[in-house]
Amino acid sequence: MISEDWREVLDKAKSISEEIVTTRRTIHSRPELGYQERETAALVEARLRELGIEHRGGVGGTGVIGLIQGSRPGRTVLLRADMDALPITEESPEAYASQNAGVMHACGHDGHTAMLLGAARILQEGRTDFAGTVKLMFQPAEEGGGGAVKMIQDGLLENPTVDAAYALHVWHELNTGALMVRSGPLLAGANSFTITVTGRGGHASRPQAAVDPVVVAAQIVMALQTLVSREVDPSVPAVVTLGSFQAGTAFNIIPDQAVIKGTVRAFEDGVMEHLESRIEAVATGVASALRARASVEIHMHYPPTINDEAMVELAGGVVRKLGLGAVPGEPLLGAEDFSYVLQRVPGAMLMLGVKNPDWVEPRPVHTARICLPPRP
Ligand SMILES: [Zn+2]
Ligand SMILES: [Zn+2]
Fold first, then answer.
1. Cβ atoms 48, 67 nearer than 8 A
2. How many Å lie between the centroid of ligand 1 and the Cα of residue 148?
3. How far is C-alpha 19 from the geometric centre of its chain's CA atoms?
4. How many A from CA of 107 to the centre of ligand 1?
5. Which of 20, 137, 141, 349 could serve as 147's disulfide partner, Cβ 3.0–4.6 Å?
6. Strands (E) located in 177-233
7. Nearest ligand to the C-alpha of residue 366?
8. Distance (Å) from CA 286 to ligand 2 centroid
């Protein structure tokens, strides 16, 4: 019985590991940004069709839902994979490196999708051994696009009603073979924001006739560094990062505008709200003091990812039975739209170690280095 003998499931997974790796590499070589995952979704649908798994595409944009029915009626468990890539140029000599310029699977979503297809095969072939239904969720646009929300709006959690939900996310700070099994807060709440600084362009030799938005935006970047360090309790986690600063086209032109993009992360709603309102106040205040204007737009706001204690215990038990390492870990300031699923049904996200302990240099997610060859 698969439901009793977890070892058997692990052995089955090992026996199809080559297939899972091949699928991962195929997806890795053809990365697509959020809501553009047409080729990836087509691959997922083709595989589900091959396996004889009932499925529906075009959910929440480019999402796919699959349903595996056990041999007896029972509850429904959802398993999630995300399919989108990031706007990063890959630096890798591997044959399976990205073929789509400027786009790369740098967050491991290629692996998540391949692993869920592997799990789908094992569950489908062993469906006479379990009761209830497994719902497979292949979602678009996790990286800031809120694909999970779109799928929920499109009926993800109904027909059949989902009773529990699980997801894995690869994590580069955890050794391969270990899983971070943590109950309660796992990932932070996060938003993204854009600050547009408008000055008045002119010739580089005549700053007195212009209002230089580059200098104003630089002051805003520095002023925002004081929010976490001076306004948030040092014992409470919070981050403000400005990941993009764009202005100008040439060395001798003062441009009209500078655009800063950033993110705020925190676990407590009060801290998030404080930082959001202060970003606006600091940006507009600094700009007006320096004769420019700033407008602040807050975009997608992901809630914190909170794991359910009982669901974590259940998953942790399986991890231990399989003889894999389960570590409690500390909350991380990354964010996930799986949080929207966990707001509605009990469940958990586990972080899956992908770090080779021999690596000399770290290979973090969201960098071009994550998929360099195995040797350091
Ligand atoms: Zn990511
Ligand atoms: Zn991710």
1. no
2. 14
3. 24
4. 5
5. 141
6. 178-180, 184-187, 189-198, 202-203
7. 1
8. 34
For residue 266, is it left (φ>0), alpha (ψ between -120 and 50) or beta? Answer: beta
Q: Token digits for 142? A: 């996790």
Q: What's the pLDDT at 276?
A: 95
Q: How far is the CA of 152 from the centre of ligand 1 (A)?
A: 20
Concatenated DSSP letters of 40-78: HHHHHHHHHHHTT-EEEEEETTTEEEEEEE-SEEEEEEE
The values of phi and psi at residue 80, to 5°, are -110, 140
Confidence of residue 228 (pLDDT cuts 50, 70, 90): very high
* Residue with tokens 């072939």, as numbered in its chain: 125
Please tell me the distance between residue 207's alpha carbon and the centre of ligand 2 in angstroms: 44
* Residue 306 alpha carbon to ligand 2 centre in Å: 16
Distance 250 CA to ligand 1 centre (A): 32
Output the CA 334–ligand 1 centroid distance in Å: 8
Q: Which of 139, 6, 134, 120 is nearest to 76 (CA)?
A: 134
What is the pairing mode between strands 178-180 and 325-327?
A: parallel
Q: How far is the CA of 365 from the centre of ligand 1 (A)?
A: 7
pTM of the predicted model as reported, rounded to 2 decimal places: 0.88
Over residues 338-349, the pLDDT tens digits come to 999 999 999 999
Give the tokens for residue 270. Answer: 């009060």
Distance CA 104, CA 369 (A): 11
**Bridge partners (DSSP) listed for residue 86:** 104
| Nearest one of 332, 235, 308, 227 to 272, comparing CA atoms | 227
CA 128 vs CA 68, 69, 122, 131, 260: distances in Å: 11, 9, 11, 8, 55
Q: In this structure, what are the phi and psi dihedrals at residue 364, rounded to the nearest 5 degrees?
A: -70, 150
* Tens-digit pLDDT profile for residues 183-210: 999 999 999 999 999 999 999 999 999 9
